[in-house]
Amino acid sequence: MSCKPKTMCKWDKDRISEDFDKFVKLVKKPGYACRKCGRVASTEKRLCKPVALK
Ligand SMILES: [Zn+2]
């Protein structure tokens, strides 16, 4: 785990499987979706174009 990308938008499938527990924590209670990448996260800080889910 050399690099620590700020947003999980940058995570590829290798990074996700490597850090899967962390990934689950970030997505299990999604409050935001990324307009650009289609990912969801519990915090907007993890997305590059966050949009609050209602
Ligand atoms: Zn994104």
Explain this structure.
With 54 residues, the protein is α+β, with helices and mostly antiparallel strands. The chain contains 2 helices and 3 strands. The protein has helices spanning 13-18, 20-27; strands at residues 32-34, 40-41, 50-52. It has a 3-stranded antiparallel β-sheet, with no helix packed on it. The longest helix is centred in the middle third of the chain and has 8 residues, at 20-27. The N and C termini lie far apart (34 Å). Residues 9, 34, 36-37, 39, 47-49 line the site of zinc ion. Zinc ion (ZN) binds next to loops.
Summarize the structure.
The protein has helices spanning 13-18, 20-27, and strands at residues 32-34, 40-41, 50-52.
Descriptive tags:
single chain; globular; 54 residues; alpha+beta; binds zinc ion
Please render the helix and strand layout as text.
Blueprint: H1 13-18, H2 20-27, E1 32-34, E2 40-41, E3 50-52
Antiparallel strand pairs: 1-2, 1-3
The protein binds zinc ion.
